[in-house]
């Protein structure tokens, strides 16, 4: 994310604004804002103007460990959990060990018994991990933005301050955001290609 942020800021001169909003329509910050992409994740359930009752959190806990002897990705699926070993390239031997897949659980605390379970399960599927005891650098719990019925990528035409605007919803990937995010972004942009084409044409004419 930091790489994308720096590239957009430095290469494409994108201006980033951080602001709290109480309603999705507040994201239309000026009369010139034609499109808003709603990528609010778990907040899509409660944010006014969206309030998608199909959204729910899926809790996961993972461990960050130092284990430079581990080089292979390994994964096994189970009920309410997923066991995986994922080395982080360029991290000087850091590895992610997981995890859990607890639907509807919004607890962000970490628990020692889950840490022990993760270590036991990951050692069971990774012979590399069993060669030496990994150094635990930290335990983290997070909430995946899941959605009953799958992702929501669609355009909604709304009226804000008397003007027709486009609101593009793009959320609900759950635990597959890394894999699906790029394709979802492309689909979201396609939803408003007619508006973006007009913006590009206007920009070209302004330079003539």
UniProtKB/TrEMBL annotation:
The keyword Oxidoreductase applies. Its cofactor is FAD. It comes from Thyridium curvatum. One of its GO terms (biological process) is D-amino acid catabolic process. It comes from the Eukaryota. GO terms for molecular function: D-amino-acid oxidase activity; FAD binding. This is FAD dependent oxidoreductase domain-containing protein. The keyword DNA damage does not apply.
């Amino acid at each position: 994310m930091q790489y994308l942020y720096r590239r957009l800021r430095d290469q494409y001169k994108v201006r980033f604004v951080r602001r709290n909003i109480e309603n999705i329509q507040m994201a239309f910050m000026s009369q010139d804002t034609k499109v808003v992409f709603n990528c609010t994740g778990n907040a899509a359930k409660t944010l006014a103007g969206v309030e998608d009752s199909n959204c729910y959190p899926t809790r996961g806990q993972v461990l960050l460990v130092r284990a430079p002897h581990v080089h292979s990705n390994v994964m096994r699926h189970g009920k309410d959990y997923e066991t995986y070993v994922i080395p982080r390239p360029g991290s000087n031997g850091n590895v992610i060990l997981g995890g859990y897949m607890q639907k509807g659980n919004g607890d962000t605390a970490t628990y020692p018994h889950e840490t022990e379970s993760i270590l036991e399960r990951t050692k069971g599927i990774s012979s590399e991990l069993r060669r030496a005891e990994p150094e635990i650098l930290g335990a983290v719990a997070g909430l995946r933005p899941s959605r009953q019925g799958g992702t929501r990528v669609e355009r909604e035409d709304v009226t804000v301050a008397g003007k027709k605007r486009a609101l593009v919803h793009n959320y609900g990937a759950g635990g597959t955001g890394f894999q699906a995010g790029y394709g979802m972004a492309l689909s979201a942009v396609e939803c408003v290609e007619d508006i973006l084409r007009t913006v590009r044409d206007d920009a070209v004419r302004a330079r003539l």
